[in-house]
Amino acid sequence: MTARRLRASLKGWGGVGAMALALAVTALFALLLPLGSARGDGSTGTGGQGVGQGIQARADTCTDPQNQSPSPSSDDSGKTITAIKQRGYLSVGVDQNSYRWGYRDPNNTAKSSDLEGFDIDLAHEIARDILGDPNAVRFHAIPTNQRIPAIKSGQVDMVVRTMTITCSRLKDVAFSAPYFLTGQQVLAPKTSDIKGYDKTLAGKRICSAAGSTAYDKLSADKKAATLASSADITTTVPNQLDCLVRLQLGQVDAVVTDGALAASQAAQDPTVELKGRTFTEDYYGVAMKLGADDLVRRVNQVLVDYRKSGGWQASYTKWLSATLKADSPSATPPTAHYQ
């Protein structure tokens, strides 16, 4: 890739300096935001012995993973929520480099230390509802492939990070009801001959995030021979945005990720575009520790209230409506069904 094209492709990030920021983000993903948000043993003090035992359906009995969450409840007396209240803040794993989802705006110097985006709004709303203060939340930057380990180890109470609800993940974490509907999609340069998730990917280098739904789909389709055998899916990265950087540098030919994320990345970089339509139906959920049933039910109640109050729609309008088409299935919150 020429220097001229690279500068053009990074126009949405504010130029070469912003490119350095994008690359630096990956090296900094493990930092706590702010420091000191967890105890020395990495535990937040939740999910311990005595936590409610309402375990969600496991993968071997799962058919519709987005419908496996328990019914909403406003009860705050459970052990997990009690521990959070005693501590005084919510510990949340988020992204810090997904444009309009969870990111730091490099052009917003007045609020350079603040995370912004659709997922960040939701995390603040959960904190406001449970603790009475939207700012009673400590964010941890969690890479894609560390979302489940962060929950299981107790590093965070929950992850709000464009995390798709899947049957396999239900073996490791509990999910809220879905708060967003999207699907996997291909992102590639506008000049590329790639047309979508089809035979035009033959011989192409495809990037996805390690541990992501995208990689699972690519891997399964390679094994099933529904994806061209010559398609190279070996490039995986810790954070999904790293795929966009690889694409800009000419190291890969295409990215496969959630369509909503891909649309935001296309908004950042005017030289790339979505190719074809979404080819899966995926639901994002708030992920929490298995056994923390009281917290899961409480978050489900927050989501009910967030939809009814218009908060969900206001956040969507602010962050995502400009990058998604008016007829997008993502434009309204998904209907919740409970186990």
What does this structure look like?
Helices cover 30% and strands 17% of the residues. The protein is globular. The strands form 4 sheets. Strands 1-5-2-6-15-7 form a 6-stranded mixed beta sheet. The protein has a 5-stranded mixed beta sheet with strand order 11-10-12-9-13, with helices on both faces. A two-stranded antiparallel sheet has the order 3-4. It has helices at residues 3-9, 16-27, 79-87, 118-131, 147-152, 213-223, 241-248, 259-268, 293-309, 311-319; strands at 32-33, 90-94, 97-98, 102-103, 137-141, 158-159, 173-175, 180-182, 184-189, 205-209, 232-237, 254-258, 272-275, 282-284, 287-289. It has 339 residues and is of the alpha/beta class. A hairpin with a 3-residue loop joins strand 3 (97-98) and strand 4. Helix 4 (118-131) packs across helix 9 (293-309). It is built from 10 helices and 15 strands. The termini are far apart. The longest helix is centred in the last third of the chain and has 17 residues, at 293-309.
Secondary structural class: alpha/beta
Give the number of DSSP strands: 15
Radius of gyration: 20 Å
The largest β sheet comes out as: 6 strands, mixed
DSSP strand content: 15-25%
Name the shape in a single word: globular
Spatial ordering of strands, largest sheet: 1-5-2-6-15-7
Helix content: 25-40%
Explain the layout of strands and helices.
Layout: H1 3-9, H2 16-27, E1 32-33, H3 79-87, E2 90-94, E3 97-98, E4 102-103, H4 118-131, E5 137-141, H5 147-152, E6 158-159, E7 173-175, E8 180-182, E9 184-189, E10 205-209, H6 213-223, E11 232-237, H7 241-248, E12 254-258, H8 259-268, E13 272-275, E14 282-284, E15 287-289, H9 293-309, H10 311-319
Parallel strand pairs: 2-5, 2-6, 10-11, 10-12
Antiparallel strand pairs: 1-5, 3-4, 6-15, 7-15, 8-14, 9-12, 9-13
Helix pairs in contact: 4-9
